[in-house]
Each structure stands twice: as structure tokens, then as C-alpha cells.
Specification:
It is a single chain. The protein is an alpha/beta fold. It has 15 helices and twelve strands. The chain has helices at 13-16, 39-43, 66-80, 91-94, 105-120, 136-142, 149-165, 185-189, 199-224, 246-268, 273-282, 292-298, 347-361, 387-405, 455-465; strands spanning 6-10, 84-88, 124-130, 171-175, 229-236, 239-241, 303-308, 312-314, 365-369, 411-414, 437-439, 451-453. An eight-stranded parallel barrel has the order 1-2-3-4-5-7-9-10, surrounded by four helices. Helix 3 packs parallel to helix 5 (105-120) and helix 7 (149-165) runs parallel beside helix 9 (199-224). The model has no long low-confidence stretch (mean pLDDT 97). It binds 6-O-phosphono-beta-D-galactopyranose. 6-O-phosphono-beta-D-galactopyranose (BGP) is lined by residues 12, 15, 176-177, 235, 307, 369, 373, 417, 424-427, 432. 6-O-phosphono-beta-D-galactopyranose is lined by residues 12, 15, 176-177, 235, 307, 369, 373, 417, 424-427, 432.
């Protein structure tokens, strides 16, 4: 791999930071997403969090309290040899309601401390501006990204952090998994549907607002911190046709386009023809302001970041078994084994996805999430032997290296997800673990928060130390 390839790990404030009432932070979307059966309906925007039972448990409020443990966690990342660390800022820690004219200094100080700690170890910060998180006040007042008002609020936040961190942060990502808005609208973008509301119309309008906000953030970064690189972020995973029946192939192409749509706009700078036709056929009318299309055209991203957990599969007849556990509807692929949460395991699909994205956009890629959510057992001697995680990562890193070295994909770095155990986004569980570092906490909030190195910790350290040369 290239000498400056960035090996590291990834987390996000909404799932690890906690400290929801510390340092003047305002309420955020994540604070009202519960654990348990109500989680999905709330994340989908079809249940109002204000109707939740009083005794609901909100796992993101404390999470793994990285707010109070960041020094210890970063020291562990440094020990593994991380060259970069992807994490997110909590918007409501900096703008508690989203509408202040001045930022919350205590919030900025917290991120100063985090960023300085990283720099102390020579770890490059890679920061997501909005990872499933926005000030709750903006949801209440404006309906979040349904409203164009969000663009101004987001840009005020970007302006502050770009200026404040311009000499310390080189890599910014605007919206995490921007296409998640279509699947989990409340978690992805704070969207809650009113009775009788035209859901698809609302989603595409909100998407337009996010796309314009993302392009204007790119513009702002070029003015304030011209050395920085700004990327978009896709929940990736190529969609396979279930068979070589052309009807299946066509279906898979359409499904891929549902996801590519966002990146097509952010990377190529315009609404693609297929999307214009789709919107027209569906009777969706996107409210735009004069100049929006120029903004999109003139401010495309520098790189494309992505998460890859699995490929997807589709059959045109809608028959057969569905693949479980994933928010993307998918047919079960008979060639693939699945994780404990029903997510297919497909390293070759990783190579395919990287190639597909690089062919399509011809811009540098950055893998900012990949990994296996699994139950870990602490043995009597205190050890955690997560060989299954090592196997998953080994096969995926091999596929990634092949994409780079054999296929010529331009890749900036690799940050596996949840390098320290954290709260699962889709299930709210702690027991769905991804980390090299174990955190003693259970699904209902019990535990000491103690950090313990897993077997994969030493393994990944060796991978980084040999620049991917030793994957044994
Ligand atoms: C992505 C998100 C992450 C993360 C990951 C794993 O969609 O960007 O926030 O959580 O998926 O998913 P889960 O936590 O549901 O296992």
C-alpha cells in the first residue's frame, strides 16, 4: 500500500461520546432514540419519541462515556499505531439549540482537547460534521431537514469549526451515510412524518436541502481552509442481481442508483437523468431556489468516503427469503454466510464495491467504516479471543488491498468501525460489538466502562505496523 495510506479506526459522537448533559451540550436526536422495540419505529420517523413510555432507556445519552474517557481511548488507539482517527463532532455540543449566534465555548474546548490529544500522538483527525445527529431543538422548531432553514444553521456550525480547526484538521466529511435518510429518516436526518404526509416527497426535499448544505460546506471550506479535503459519505455495498435474468439485473441497477443518487450529485455536481425521470414519474416536486443547481455544480467533493459491511442482492419477482437484520431490503444470497445479526459476509463484494465506485466517480475513496458486529465473551482469565472478528477483517483487508494494488483503486485510508466497542446504531445494543477494545457495559446500561484489549488489538497493530503486509 502507498506509504501515506492512513490506517486507523472510526467512531461517532452519537454512539460513543455520551456526556449528554455535560459542558453545556444541547439535546440531540440521539438522546431520544430508545433501546428496545420502539427503536425502529422512532428511527423510521413513524413514532414520535414524545409518546414513548416514561421509563424508556436511551443508550446514546451515556454511551461509553468517551466524553470522560477520551484520553484513555486515544492512548489505546496510539498504542495500536493508528495514523488517523475518524470521529464526529456533536453539533449540539457546539450549538446547543442550533440557532445561537455564538458557539458554546465549552463544547469547542472539548474538541480542542480531543484534537490536540490526537495530534500529540501524530494521529490525523478525520471529522464527520453530522453523524446521525442534529440539535433536537431544530427538529422541534423546523422539522429538521424538511426545512431549508437547516442549511443556514448547518453552515453557521461549519463556519465556526472550519475557522477554529483550520490548522489542525485536514479531512472533513459532511453527512454520514447520507443515503440513510431514505431508510431511517429520523435517525438519519431528524425527519418525523405527520399523519397523511407524502413520505417520499418529504424525503427527497430533505435530501435536496442536505445536498445543497453539503455543497455549500465544501465552498466554505475552500474559502476558510483551502488545504482541507472535504468528502461525502455513502452507505455502500453493491447490489447483485439474484440471477442472470435481465429483469433481475435491471432491478439491481435501479437499487444501486437509489444509493448512488446522492453521491452522483455530490461528486458529479448534478441531478442525474435517471433521477430526474424518477422524480417526475413519482410526481415528486423538489422546491429549489435559484442558484441551487449552480451551487451543486460548482462545489463537488474532493473524495468519497464509504461504509461497507455487506453486499446486497435483489430479485425482480420479490420471491424467496429476505436477508435479515439490515435496513436495506435485500434477498438472501445463497452463496454467503451471515453474521449473528444476519448481515451477509462478503469480502469479494468489498472489492467489487470499491471498483464500482472508483469506476463511476474517478475520485479518491476513503473506507471509513467496515467491520463485524459480534457477541464477545470475556474468558475466565479476562481475555477476549475474537478470532471471528480477525477473520472478517483479514478477508476484507485482503480484498481492499487487491482493489488497490491489482485494480488501481485510489484509496486514502481505512478506518474500521467501532474501534472501541460502542452502541449499535440500528439495534441500540452494546452487545453488538465491533471493537479492538472491549468496553464493560451491557445492553441496559450496567457495567464499569472499563476498557480491555481484545485479541484483535495485537493483530491490528501488526497489520498497521506492516502497512498491511502481515495479515496472519
Ligand atoms: C453504519 C453507521 C454507523 C454504525 C454502523 C454499524 O450504518 O454509520 O453509525 O453504527 O453502521 O451498524 P450497527 O451499529 O447497526 O451494527
Amino acid at each position: 500500500m502507498r506509504k501515506d495510506f492512513l490506517w486507523g479506526g472510526a467512531t461517532a459522537a452519537n454512539q460513543c461520546e455520551g456526556g449528554w448533559q455535560e459542558g453545556g451540550r444541547g439535546m440531540a436526536i440521539v438522546d431520544v432514540i430508545p433501546h428496545g422495540a420502539n427503536r425502529m419505529p422512532v428511527m423510521k420517523g413513524i413514532m414520535d419519541y414524545r409518546d414513548l413510555p416514561k421509563d424508556s432507556y436511551y443508550p446514546g445519552r451515556e454511551a461509553i462515556d468517551m466524553y470522560g474517557h477520551y484520553k484513555e481511548d486515544i492512548a489505546l488507539f496510539a498504542e495500536m499505531g493508528f495514523q488517523c482517527y475518524r470521529f464526529s463532532f456533536s453539533w449540539s455540543r457546539i450549538f446547543p439549540t442550533g440557532e445561537e449566534t455564538e458557539p458554546n465555548e465549552e463544547g469547542l474546548r472539548f474538541y480542542d482537547d480531543v484534537v490536540n490529544e490526537l495530534i500529540k500522538y501524530g494521529i490525523e483527525p478525520v471529522v464527520t460534521l453530522c453523524h446521525f445527529d442534529a440539535p433536537l431543538e431544530l427538529v422541534e422548531k423546523y422539522g429538521s431537514w424538511k426545512s431549508r432553514k437547516m442549511i443556514d444553521c448547518f453552515l453557521r456550525y461549519c463556519d465556526v469549526v472550519f475557522r477554529h480547526f483550520k490548522n489542525r484538521i485536514r479531512y472533513w466529511i459532511t453527512f454520514n451515510e447520507i443515503n440513510m435518510l431514505m431508510h431511517l429518516p429520523f435517525m438519519g436526518a431528524g425527519i418525523r412524518f405527520e399523519k397523511g404526509e407524502d413520505e417520499i416527497q418529504v424525503k427527497y426535499q430533505a435530501a435536496h436541502h442536505e445536498l445543497v448544505a453539503s455543497a455549500l460546506a465544501v465552498k466554505l471550506a475552500r474559502e476558510i481552509c483551502p488545504d482541507a479535503q472535504v468528502g461525502c459519505m455513502l452507505a455502500a455495498g453493491s447490489v447483485y442481481p439474484y440471477s442472470c435474468n435481465p429483469a433481475d439485473v435491471w432491478e439491481s441497477m435501479k437499487k444501486d442508483r437509489e444509493n448512488y443518487f446522492f453521491i452522483d450529485v455530490q461528486a458529479r455536481g448534478e441531478y442525474p437523468e435517471y433521477a430526474k425521470k424518477f422524480l417526475e414519474q413519482q410526481g415528486i416536486r423538489i422546491g429549489m431556489q435559484e442558484g441551487d443547481l449552480d451551487i451543486l455544480k460548482e462545489n463537488t467533493v474532493d473524495f468519497i468516503s464509504l461504509s461497507y459491511y455487506n453486499s446486497r442482492c435483489v430479485r425482480s419477482d420479490g420471491q424467496g427469503e429476505a436477508s435479515g437484520g439490515n435496513v436495506f431490503a435485500s434477498a438472501k444470497n445463497p452463496y454467503l454466510e451471515c453474521s449473528q445479526w444476519g448481515w451477509p459476509i462478503d469480502p469479494m463484494g468489498f472489492r467489487i464495491t470499491l471498483n464500482a465506485l472508483y469506476d463511476r466517480y474517478n475520485k479518491p475513496l476513503f473506507v471509513v467504516e467496515n467491520g463485524l458486529g459480534a457477541v464477545d465473551t470475556v474468558e475466565e482469565d479476562g481475555k477476549i479471543n475474537d478470532d471471528y472478528r480477525i477473520d472478517y477483517l483479514r478477508s476484507h483487508i485482503k480484498a481492499m488491498i487487491a482493489a488497490v494494488e491489482e485494480d488501481g483503486v485510489d484509496l486514502l485510508g481505512y478506518t474500521p468501525w467501532g474501534c472501541v466497542d460502542l452502541i449499535s446504531a440500528t439495534t441500540g445494543e452494546m452487545s453488538k460489538r465491533y471493537g479492538f477494545v472491549y468496553v464493560d457495559k451491557d445492553d441496559m446500561g450496567g457495567g464499569t466502562l472499563k476498557r480491555v484489549r481484545k485479541k484483535s488489538f495485537e493483530w491490528y497493530k501488526e497489520v498497521i505496523g506492516t502497512n498491511g503486509g502481515n495479515l496472519l
